[in-house]
């Protein structure tokens, strides 16, 4: 599936196919993302600084804080949706946003551990417009620093030494297990010709939904919320994660390269069995059948790497004609609606509810 | 450094150069190792069974429970020193041995996570007389299943939901961070011509000492021990780990291939900068200098892979002549003595103290 990319301070306009039913909250969301970054990044950097050399340097490169030559860099650290959610999660439980910071940092560490390992497993050479860690520092450092970030995530929580931290660590561990399950499914699907829509949704729920769900509850847990409140926030995050991934899958095919920083038809070039593809293949009818024949032939083709723009455009058109694009856009809207509906299951300050709603809207209208 | 290998039910006779000063506790130790295995293996297998396919199968192969074709196998699961220590650790705190079982399982999961990743990073093709996971199932599965075992280790502890489990998880996380630091040092030393004895000891303390130290305290923490008791047991385990590794380093050069299951001069063939080598190089004198010249030339030699038995034997003889073998044997005895001395810092049932002493003796007299 497409990975999380983005830059700081982006403005948001709802020009995405999934965005018909949601309002525009540009200012709110930019401020929320900025707050998440401002509160969590110093703690994240301090945690990463604890790593022994050369792991601290390799990690700093991965986070975009230095370049491949070790010079300070103002790199692209991603959209920072998860830290923003973790802080709101603390506020949803009536605690200060700051109570969620260790959770925000732990979730970011796990997210980046998984990026380091997934990029190596998948052979991906680019991430956030830069060479990936295994390309620059070698496979061993990608494995080792990934491991170190994972360990650091647990350390950041458990060193708090509170019962709440233990509960937070337990939830993070469950989410990490699902994240790993999702990656295992993603790898196994690559070797299969057909993947069902249900399998794809299950994989995306594990690979993207679980950690976003954890981000949405971990701040509340650290802020003293009971399990029911945390479970509701987790459910919100799970559906938000599915909406997020559906939009990612749309952007992976039809995203504007200038916005996404990826090639045109990016997921098609990588033969990804993303939601629009599996939905189109499952739809039946002439376009679906023609698409199936083409993709089967592509899987065996030795010319695939030299395909022209037109050949990818033809596949994208068939996916759209078979209904895969519209189905995925609907899926994003459906999951977005469920996420917001679920939030009503728990009492929280109305300002926080509005902010969680605004973030959910942002996730489905974003263009990168 | 040499890795942990061994088989079940081994009998122990003190014919090792490090064994002059310790008594023989054959029967005791065999029973202790067997108890550790009997109590922890079913829980370990149940934990591994929770992994989603194909990770459960890959992990079962790694643990030796099935062969590469998936057929049940009565493989070599290692000496199981860590589980035995974790159970004794619980008893040292006045709890039942069973209280230590989740700790034993968590430590084994972390140990095996590190083996999966280290074998891939180091390019090691054999482990416990079998092809390593990355050789059989590919690098991606080695990374993924290693990650899954690490997550499972935290899960096994944190799902207990007690304050003691949170403290145990925190100690395990610290140990895992050190383990990763040690692997980072080991990798960086491979690229250097000279490593000091102090650097080698620090690396071995991280790579072997930290997790053995955790095994020796985690049962006590789960059994309700205070931090001081846990710290003393951890210190015992740290020194025991250094003794263990010193013996491993001796066996890696002078071990009997029939006992160790490795080639003759195993660590010399892999150009490992183990304790006997760095101690010999640091010693000075004609043999030390001649050894330094040979190893420098070996590092650049294109014929190294076709070296004869005699060429390795000549290097081993120089290490011995320069005093590297005797220094390492002394180091094993010294760390063994400190481990046992440290134990007097805490009250515990005398039977448990005797068993911890017997296990320490076993570690330095073992031949595999």
Automatic annotation (TrEMBL), chains A, B:
<dbReference type="InterPro" id="IPR000092">
    <property type="entry name" value="Polyprenyl_synt"/>
</dbReference>
<keyword id="KW-0479">Metal-binding</keyword>
<dbReference type="Pfam" id="PF00348">
    <property type="entry name" value="polyprenyl_synt"/>
</dbReference>
<keyword id="KW-0808">Transferase</keyword>
<protein>
    <submittedName>
        <fullName>Polyprenyl synthetase family protein</fullName>
    </submittedName>
</protein>
<dbReference type="InterPro" id="IPR033749">
    <property type="entry name" value="Polyprenyl_synt_CS"/>
</dbReference>
<dbReference type="InterPro" id="IPR008949">
    <property type="entry name" value="Isoprenoid_synthase_dom_sf"/>
</dbReference>
<comment type="similarity">
    <text>Belongs to the FPP/GGPP synthase family.</text>
</comment>
<feature type="region of interest" description="Disordered">
    <location>
        <begin position="1"/>
        <end position="24"/>
    </location>
</feature>
<keyword id="KW-0460">Magnesium</keyword>
<feature type="compositionally biased region" description="Polar residues">
    <location>
        <begin position="1"/>
        <end position="19"/>
    </location>
</feature>
């Amino acid at each position: 599936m497409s990975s999380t990319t983005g830059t700081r301070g982006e403005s948001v306009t709802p020009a995405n196919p999934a965005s018909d039913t949601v309002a525009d909250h540009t200012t709110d969301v930019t401020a929320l993302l900025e707050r998440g970054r401002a509160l969590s990044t110093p703690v994240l950097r301090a945690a990463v600084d604890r790593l022994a050399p050369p792991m601290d340097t390799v990690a700093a490169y991965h986070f975009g804080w230095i370049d491949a030559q070790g010079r300070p860099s103002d790199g692209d650290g991603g959209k920072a949706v998860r830290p923003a959610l973790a802080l709101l999660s603390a506020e949803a439980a009536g605690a200060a946003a700051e109570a969620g910071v260790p959770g925000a940092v732990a979730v970011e560490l796990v997210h980046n551990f998984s990026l380091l390992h997934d990029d190596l497993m998948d052979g991906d050479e680019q991430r956030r417009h830069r060479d990936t860690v295994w390309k620059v520092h070698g496979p061993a450092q990608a494995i080792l620093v990934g491991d170190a970030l994972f360990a650091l995530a647990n350390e950041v929580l458990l060193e708090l030494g509170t019962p709440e931290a233990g509960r937070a660590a337990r939830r993070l561990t469950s989410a990490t297990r699902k994240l790993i399950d999702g990656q295992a499914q993603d790898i196994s699907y690559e070797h299969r010709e057909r993947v069902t829509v249900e399998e794809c949704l299950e994989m995306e729920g594990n690979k993207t939904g679980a950690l976003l769900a954890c981000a949405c509850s971990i701040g509340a847990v650290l802020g003293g919320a009971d399990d029911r409140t945390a479970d509701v926030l987790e459910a919100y995050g799970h559906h938000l994660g599915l909406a997020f991934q559906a939009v990612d899958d749309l952007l992976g095919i039809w995203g504007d390269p200038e916005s996404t920083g990826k090639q045109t038809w990016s997921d098609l070039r990588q033969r990804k069995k993303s939601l629009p593809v599996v939905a189109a293949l499952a739809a039946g009818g002439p376009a679906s059948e023609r698409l199936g024949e083409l993709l089967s032939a592509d899987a065996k083709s030795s010319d695939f790497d030299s395909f022209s723009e037109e050949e990818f455009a033809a596949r994208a058109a068939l996916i759209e004609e078979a209904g895969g694009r519209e189905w995925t856009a609907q899926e994003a809207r459906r999951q977005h609606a469920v996420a917001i509906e679920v939030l009503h299951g728990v009492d929280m300050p109305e300002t926080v509810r509005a902010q969680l709603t605004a973030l959910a809207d942002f996730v489905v209208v974003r263009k990168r």
